[in-house]
Amino acid sequence: MSPRHRRGEETRERLLAAALDLYEREGADGFTMTAVTGTSGVSVGSLYHHFGSFDGLAAALYARCLSGLLDAVIAALDAVPPGEGAGSGEDGEDGEARAAAGIGAVVTGYLGFTREHRAAAHFVHASAYAAFLPAHAALIAREKEPRLAGILAWLRPYAEAGLVVELPDALTEMLVVGPVAETARRWLAGAPGIDLDEACRLLPERIWRSLRAGVSP
Hints:
Distance between the termini: 54 Å
Strand content: under 5%
CATH architecture of the largest domain: Orthogonal Bundle
Order of helices and strands: HHHHHHHHH
CATH class of the largest domain: Mainly Alpha
Number of helices: 9
């Protein structure tokens, strides 16, 4: 990497870090270009050079935070131990136990990231319907779609083995991620009665029951 390129990457990182810190401290009302450039010490011209606009910076920050969240879920899935014993795989009791463990990994991975990286999780959930997203949909999709596809692909062999109900990917996503995302959103908003430890303990079984083939939730 050339010195010029390295300086450019450092400037991008400084802007993104300042933007996330500012959003966490000041909220949406304080999240302005003037505030970000003032906090980071980076000029407006440099911000435009690297991100095209302030909305471009916000979209890049959203993509980064979302990627971190999904990567945490994928890492939790990757840590699910393989089946044990002769003939173990994606079918039978061993396969069912592993599929259920995968659902638990999604819950704990998602909520663990939310707890440990509250600022990033807050930005993702608070920006879900932000005006800057549509114009930068391609950037978001490049980061989100392969990661989400990987999460859904983890479950697919269990559907093929008849252990998990076969649904369109979008509906599977709603059943697996939807309850966890809503729990995180409410916890981040300070809603009463939301305890992440309790959610990690109770949600995996309820979500698994909604996906397990042949069993009513």
